[in-house]
Each structure stands twice: as C-alpha cells, then as structure tokens.
Amino acid sequence: MKTILILGATGGVGGETAAAMLRHGWRVRAMARTVPQAAGDLEWVRGDALERTAVLDAARDVDAILHAVNPPGYRDWDRLVMPMIENSITAARASGARLALPGTIYNYDPRETPVARPDSSQRPNTHKGRIRAAMEQRIAESGVRAIILRAGNFFGPRPGNNWLSQAMVKPGQPVRSILNPATPGVGHAWAYLPDLAETFARLLDREAVLPHFARYHFAGTWDADGMLIADAIRGASQAPSLPVRRMPWALLRLIGLFNVSLRETARMRQFWRHPLALDNESLVAEIGAEPHTPLDQAMTATLAALGCLPATTANIDDQAA
Question: Is 320 within the bounds of a domain?
C-alpha cells in the first residue's frame, strides 16, 4: 500500500483528493494545524506547512506529497507561498516522493492565450499569477519528481477559496440571487473538485511511469457564454427565475485601495473578460477520458453541501442517487 502526504487536507482540493486516494487504495496521511475530531480513515498529524521540520517529519516514508495549501485570500502571499513550496520540495527530495501541485489558469495572460496547453508560454500579468508561475519554476529547478495539474476555477461540496462559494452564492443561506463575475458571451473554465481529485488519483496510480516533471491540463466544465454556471445554480435551486447580478468590478477596485484581498480579486477581472480554455489532450492520452460528473449533479451536490438548498430539494436528490 502506497502512502500520500496531503498538505491542506482540510481544504477543497486536499479534502477531495484525500477521499479519492482512499478509494484508490492508498494510505493517506494528512497534516493540518488543527486536527479534526472526526479523523475518519485518514492518518492525521498536527503541523504547519511553514515549519520545515514538521513537513519533513510528516513526509517520512511517503510515496507522494500533495501540496494543496495556500494562505487565505491574497494576504501575505509574497511572504508565505514560496517558503511553503520550498518545504514541500525539501520533503519530497528527502523522502524520494513525487510532489503533486494543483495548478491554476493564473499563470497565463488570457488576452494572448485563449487556449493553453501544458507547455504554453507563461507570461502572467497579475501578482498572484507571477507567484504561481514562480512556484512551478522552483519545482522544475529543484529536480524532484513532480506532477502539476492545472485547472480552471474550483467548485464543489467543500467550501473554500473559490468564486462560487465566496461570491456567487452565500453558504448556509438559500440562493435568492446569483452574483455572476462572468462577462456575457465570454467563455470560462471551471473544475468540479471531486473530478479533479479523481484525476490526481489516476495520475498518481501511474506515477512510476510518468515523466520526471509531468504537467497536465484538466479541461473541466467549459462555460461558453458566461451563463452556464449561473443557470446550473438556478436548476439545482429549482428556481429558474433567480435574478443574476453582475459583479461590481468598479466598486471592488475602489475598495481595493484599502483592502489587499479585494484589490487582488479585482485584478482577476481579465480572466472573466477574455476566454481561456485548457487543452487536456496530453492528460487524456495518459489516463483516458477525463473524469466528468454531469453539471446538474455536480451543482446540486455542491449547493446541498454548502447549505444553500432547501432540505426537501437535497432529500429528493439523495433519494434519486
């Protein structure tokens, strides 16, 4: 039985990947600053991704390390992100494990890259994008075996730092309106986290035969006109007339003068004004068809877990499953 260490197992990507790896027969060791009371089938260890000794200790005798931890929002990225990835690289080198990183579209400039392949030039023009590109470059330079799996904006049953649960709807409340960051007629890539996690599991099952430094793209769900996700929220809520409001980008820029998180959020507008799709040809060649949950099922599961659906709606979906 192989073992994976997951940094960020209490988050969206980390939590879903932990569940997927268990399904694939892996032993899962999860490190967190606060260990949940309900440990389940995970082997929890207490530690901080910023403490190198803690990461090294947790990574002893593991076969893979998933680096799925980020500072909340955009605060302190300059100071925290690179030290954390450096600790994971050091642990991967010491244990001989393969390092896996969930990547993003922010490495690219959507104004010049409408379709991104894993080897497309990275010329990020946002603060977060430059840091994400620097993380990947550092992994490449380190010489450790690695997998980078880039995907669009996340959504899924676990709340986290994503547009759907932090902007479009309000967790814990029925959906009364939808705040849509998309531009009408402009496509956008989304990634349902359970499908992304299953993809990580299939790649890691084959990690021994993958390239030393492997990069793939997860195509996910393509919202061709900027309304597909909003309409899916309407459908899951059984409220086809739910009002859809536009994101107040100008207000975000104004408030961003005094708030770092909102300032960086406002800079992400270009990814909603210009389409950027991810080419998954090399991923399909490696694992076969990309895991894909039908959008209506994915959105219903997401909103039910976020506490945004009436109990009757959630129960009907459970009975149908």
Answer: no
Question: Which residues, 6+ apart, have CB-to-CB distance to 315 below 8 Å?
Answer: none
| Contact assessment for residue 216 and residue 149, using Cβ atoms and an 8 Å cutoff | yes
Asked if 214 and 139 touch (Cβ cutoff 8 Å), the reply is no
| Per-residue pLDDT tens over the stretch 285-308 | 999 999 999 999 999 999 999 999
End-to-end CA gap in the chain: 31
For residue 236, count other CB atoms closer than 10 A to its CB.
24
Q: Is the torsion defined by CA of 160, 142, 78, 272 positive or negative?
A: negative
Give the range of the structural domain holding residue 151, as residue numbers without chain letter: 3-160+187-223+274-292
Q: Could you give phi then psi for residue 115, rounded to 5 degrees?
A: -130, 120
How far is residue 181's CA from residue 248's CA, in Å, rounded to a whole number?
8
Comparing CA positions, the residue from 21, 5, 19, 9 lying closest to residue 205 is 21
The three-state secondary structure class of 73 is: coil
Residue 31 in any domain: the answer is yes
Which pTM was predicted?
Answer: 0.93
Which residue's structure tokens are 């960051």? 181
DSSP-assigned beta bridge partners for residue 115: 277
